[in-house]
TrEMBL record:
Pfam families: SnoaL_2. SUPFAM superfamilies: NTF2-like (SSF54427). It comes from Galactobacter caseinivorans. This is Nuclear transport factor 2 family protein. Residues 9-52 form the SnoaL-like domain.
Length: 108
């Protein structure tokens, strides 16, 4: 287990903070998925939709507070500010090499 932030996870936060939707979508595998409290959006179109409604389109800023990686799974704690949500949350990334296979924000 490592506490370093994997490059795709850091690039995820950077793309959000830089409001770069194309870079954000490109981080995901073609069948990648965002699961936001049980609402699942699949593929690049789904990821782009989530970025537009809940992240970049909502003026989001993200800071990764902590990260623990084991194998292809990185569990993070992050702070978030946007017109949709403000506060801290958990985020789970499943990586496929240098790409993101899924990003999940679990319900608490």
């Amino acid at each position: 287990m490592t506490n370093q932030i994997p490059a795709p996870v850091q690039a995820f936060a950077d793309a959000i903070n830089n409001a770069d939707t194309d870079a954000f979508v490109a981080l995901f595998t073609s069948d990648g998925m965002v699961d936001d409290w049980g609402r699942q959006l699949h593929g690049h179109d789904g990821v782009r939709s989530w970025a537009g409604s809940d992240a970049i389109g909502a003026g989001a800023k993200m800071s990764i507070l902590s990260a623990e990686t084991e194998d292809a799974t990185t569990r993070t704690r992050f702070s978030w500010s946007s017109s949709v949500f403000n506060g801290e949350s958990d985020g789970i990334f499943e990586l496929d090499g240098d790409s993101i296979a899924s990003f999940t924000i679990p319900r608490h």
